[in-house]
């Protein structure tokens, strides 16, 4: 029996669970939670796993790993992120989120929505695990489901590593994941070997001046002017320091300084974000930021050294060639045409866990909108993928990809 034929009972199982999966998806969509605060989400995931009879372990405060052992064979891990965003949903869906949540770090209450599609990911993984568990005669090996918190803050995967995921699960032969996107046709899957999601980091840079009356600038050092010259100089880095064959983005998203028009403040803060597809380019961007900031501070007679705080640090997602070709071949056998994902400038912490495990990985995209290419992008208040065929296709993709290793031949 070929793998595709062996997978048919598992895939057909999705027909009998469609209504339940759609109902669960609506619940998750209406109950989004901020990164590392996914308490209700985690409880519902564990409830669904328990109902299906699948063994699981809570790992870190809001992470969950589920394990199905089914005889000798490969170990396949599949990941879904579970957190939501501080966004007020305006999708117009009848099940749109109206939730709010107080951020435990800042104390600020935010509207919250699954404006990135992580609810699609977790429902897809739950559906795939349930289907594999219900048809154990069709496959052999071990299947691990990783429900990861905190992707949006680049903290969840590292939290699961720190909580001991490398000891909590058998070492996988392969680690798989997907993301619903508006950049692919609705219902399509797309992948490619090599870099697919960019490396990224953000920096909070504080520069210091000397306060003075706005009418007497000569008596102070103006940090607003200093910050402005830094911004101008930083935007030369990509065009004049990065090779044309490389790809990089450097954005200054915010400048904060002062409170009144006639007062020169004593400091200014810049928030900077970068993207790159190689460690070398990312390192160059970081070096350039510090070099330029320090030089401009010296030129402006800044009375104190600038301060640099780095956060939201995301690794490169670099699909293993052999693993990705095996996934692509399985997709082509099942779906027919497979799209070329291309390099997506967004960033993910997906690769943190397989890197810690020493495991090869593959990550693909899932088209979520029939209105492609005019659909709203991820993180838009209007982002809410079509219910179907997205939910079925997401679960199918996970089953087919995992089945490339696990299906009985």
UniProtKB/TrEMBL annotation:
State the organism of origin: Corynebacterium imitans
Q: Name one GO molecular function term.
A: hydrolase activity
Q: Which cofactor does it need?
A: Mn(2+)
Give start and end of each Peptidase M20 dimerisation domain.
201-297
Binding-site list for Mn(2+): 116, 118, 152, 179, 379
Superkingdom, natural source: Bacteria
For this entry, the protein name equals: Amidohydrolase
User: How the cofactor binds, per note?
Assistant: The Mn(2+) ion enhances activity.
* Record field: transmembrane: none
Which keywords does the record carry?
Hydrolase, Manganese, Metal-binding
- A Pfam family of the record is Peptidase_M20
Q: EC number(s) in its UniProt entry?
A: 3.-.-.-
């Amino acid at each position: 029996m070929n793998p595709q034929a062996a997978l048919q009972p598992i895939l057909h199982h999705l027909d009998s669970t469609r209504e339940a999966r759609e109902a669960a998806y609506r619940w998750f969509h209406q109950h989004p939670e901020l990164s590392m605060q996914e308490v209700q989400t985690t409880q519902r995931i564990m409830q669904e796993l328990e109902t299906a009879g699948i063994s699981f372990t809570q790992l870190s405060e809001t992470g969950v790993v589920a394990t199905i052992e089914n005889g000798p064979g490969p170990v396949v891990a599949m990941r879904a992120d579970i957190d939501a965003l501080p966004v007020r949903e305006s999708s117009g869906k009848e099940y749109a989120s109206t939730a709010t949540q107080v951020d435990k770090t800042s104390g600020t209450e935010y509207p919250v929505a699954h404006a990135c599609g992580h609810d699609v990911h977790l429902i897809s993984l739950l559906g795939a695990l349930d289907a594999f568990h219900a048809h154990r005669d069709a496959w052999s090996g071990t299947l691990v489901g990783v429900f990861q918190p905190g992707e949006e803050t680049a903290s969840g995967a590292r939290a699961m590593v720190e909580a001991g995921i490398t000891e909590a699960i058998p070492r996988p032969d392969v680690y798989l994941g997907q993301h619903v996107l508006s950049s692919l046709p609705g219902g399509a899957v797309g992948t490619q070997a090599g870099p697919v999601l960019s490396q990224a980091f953000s920096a909070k840079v504080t520069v210091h001046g000397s306060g003075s009356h706005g009418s007497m600038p000569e008596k102070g050092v103006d940090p607003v002017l200093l910050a402005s010259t830094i911004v101008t100089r930083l935007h030369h880095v990509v065009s004049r320091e990065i090779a044309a064959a490389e790809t990089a983005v450097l954005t200054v998203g915010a400048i904060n300084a002062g409170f009144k028009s006639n007062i020169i403040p004593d400091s200014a803060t810049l928030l900077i974000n970068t993207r790159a597809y190689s460690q070398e380019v990312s390192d160059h961007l970081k070096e350039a930021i510090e070099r330029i900031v320090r030089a401009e501070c010296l030129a402006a007679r800044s009375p104190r050294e600038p301060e640099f705080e780095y956060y939201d640090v995301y690794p490169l997602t670099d699909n293993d060639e052999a693993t990705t070709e095996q996934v692509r071949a399985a997709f082509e056998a099942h779906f027919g045409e497979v799209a070329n994902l291309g390099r997506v400038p967004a960033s993910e912490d997906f690769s943190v866990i397989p890197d810690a495990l020493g495991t090869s990985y593959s990550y693909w995209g899932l088209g979520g909108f029939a209105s492609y290419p005019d659909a709203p992008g991820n993180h838009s208040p209007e982002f809410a993928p079509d219910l179907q065929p997205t939910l079925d296709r997401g679960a199918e993709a996970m089953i087919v990809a995992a089945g490339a290793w696990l299906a009985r031949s």
